[in-house]
Amino acid sequence: MPHLTRPRDFRPFIHYAPPGGWINDPNGLCWDGAQYHLFAQHHPDSLDWGPMHWIHAVSSDLYRWKDIGIALAPDPLGMIFSGSAVKDENGRLVCMFTHHGGTRDNPCEQQSIAYSADGARFEKFDGNPVIPNPGLPDFRDPRVLPNPFLGGWSAVIAAGDEARIYHSPDLIHWRQTGAFGKTQNQMGGVFECPDLFPLRAPDGSTIWALTVSVTQPRETGGSRAQVFLGEFDGLTFRETIPRDAPVMLDNGYDNYAQVTFSHADPPVALGWASSWTYANQLPTADYRGQMTIAKELSIVRTRFGPRIASKPVLPPLGKASPVEGKTALPGELFALDIDSDKPFEATLSNAKGEAFSFGVKNGAFYTDRARSGITGFSPYFSKPPYVRTETPRLFDPDSPIRMRLVFDRCIAELFSDGGAYTATVLVFPTIPYDAIELRGADGTLYTLNP
Ligand code: FRU
Fold first, then answer.
1. In testing the pocket of ligand 1, which one of 22, 23, 25 has its CB within 8 Å of the most ligand atoms?
2. Is 105 in the active site?
3. CA gap 117, 293 in Å, rounded
4. Would you say 401 and 421 are in contact if contact means Cβ atoms under 8 Å apart?
5. Is 162 touching ligand 1 by the criterion CB < 6 Å?
6. Which of 259, 87, 44 is nearest to 158 (CA)?
7. Ligand 1 in reach of 277 Cβ (< 6 A)
8. pLDDT averaged over the chain?
9. Which of 22, 57, 149, 265 could pair covalently with 43 via S-S, beta carbons 3.0-4.6 A apart?
10. How far does the centroid of ligand 1 lie from the alpha carbon of residue 82, in Å?
11. Is 23 in the pocket of ligand 1 (CB under 6 A)?
C-alpha cells in the first residue's frame, strides 16, 4: 500500500491561507471604502507559532485575497499580538494591537498603534504604548470601533476574565469607561479577541453583540467563542438578552477569534479556522492555518430567543445539479443546499472509504469526522468532544430544515435555521471526497466560481 509520506495539498480556494509559514487570529479586519483588509497573527519562519508579526492581504470580494506582505514585525516593545484597525477621519488606516513584551515568566502586554496613509506600509506611533499595562498578566487584543454615541473611538480589550471598555477622542489618549464579563463568563478561562458591534433585529431595532474567545482545557473542547447580546451606551456593554447557558458563536471546534470588519454594514466577520488544541499539528504542507469563510451577520429569532445569524459570503454559484442516490461531487470546492422535513443524513466520501457525515437526528444537528481521513496528527482531533458535534435545533424541531454546506478542500462549514446554526469542521481526506449521498433529504449541488 502506498505510504503517505508528504501531506497532500489542502490549500483552500476561497478561504484565506498564508503563502507560507503559520497564521492564527484574524487581525485588523477593515473595510476602507474600496477594499477589505485582512491581517493575521503570523510566524513567517516556521509552520509553528512563534514571534508574532501581522501578515496583510486585501480583497474586494472577501473570497479572493491578494497578499501584500508583512505589515508589522516585532520590535523592542515586544511581539505584535492581536488587534484591529479602523479608518480615521484623515483617511489613514490605524491599527491598534498588543505589544507582548517582558519576559516569559513575567510578560508585559500593552496596547499600541500604527498608521498607514497608503493602506500598505505601516509606521508605528512613536509614543507607544497608548495604553500601558494596568498590572495584569493578560491584557490584550484591542478591538477599536467608532463610537456612535460619544463620537471618537471605543476599544474593547480582553483583561483577564473580563472585557474592559475604553474611550478616546484621537486613538492616542484613552480612559476606561466600562467593563463586562466577570460574572457573565460561565466558561472559565481568560477572554481573548473581544469584539463589539451592532446588529439589526428583524423588528428593525438594534442589538449589540459582545463576543469573546476563550480557551478551555483541551479535554473539554479547547478554544471556542462565546456571544453576549445586549446594549452598548457608548460607555459600557450590558447583557439584556437572557440565556440559560453559554451561547457559542460556532457549534464546531474550528472557529476561533472570529471578529468583524470595521466599517462594514451589515457586519461581516471571519475567524481562524483552527483550534489551539491541535493547531500546531495540522497536516497541511507548506503553510499552517487558514481563515473561515466571511459571514454576513444579523439577528434571527429562534426558540431560545434572538441569536446571531451568519450567512456565508460566496462567489457566484454555478449550474445547479440535483443529488440523486450516490452523486459525484463537482470537485473540491462546492456548495450544497439541503431541504428536508425530517431527520436526514449526508455523507461525503471517497474511494478509500473515508467519509465526513452530518445531518439532523433526534431534533439535533450533528457532524461526524471519525473516519474523515487523516486524523492521527493529534490525539484529540478524532476523539470526543472534537470528533462529533451535536447541537439542538434552533428553530422548532418539527419545522422544515434548510441547510447550506460550503466545502473547500479541507474545511466544511454548515449553516441552518436561518443562520443561527453554524458549524465549522476541518477534515483532511487523503484523496478528495468525490461523492455525496443523502438519506432523507433533497439536495442541490453548486459549483462556486471565484
Ligand atoms: C488568541 C491569542 C491572542 C493573542 C494571540 C497571540 O488566539 O492567544 O489572545 O493576541 O493569540 O498569537
1. 25
2. no
3. 28
4. no
5. no
6. 259
7. no
8. 96
9. 22
10. 6
11. no
302: CA distance to ligand 1 center in Å?
32
Residue 402 has pLDDT above 90, yes or no: yes
DSSP annotation string for 141-194:
EEEEEE-TTTSSEEEEEEETTEEEEEEESSSSS-EEEEEE-TTT-TT-S-EEEE
**185/34: higher pLDDT:** 34
Q: Ligand 1 within 6 A of 258 CB?
A: no
Residues 74-103 pLDDT 10s: 999 999 999 999 999 999 999 999 999 999
pTM of the model: 0.97
User: By the 8 A CB rule, do 267 and 296 touch?
Assistant: yes
- Kindly report, residue by residue over 177-201, the tens digit of the pLDDT: 999 999 888 888 899 999 999 999 9
Q: How many CA atoms lie within 13 A of 169 on its CB side?
A: 0
CA-based nearest residue to 141, from 41, 247, 277: 41
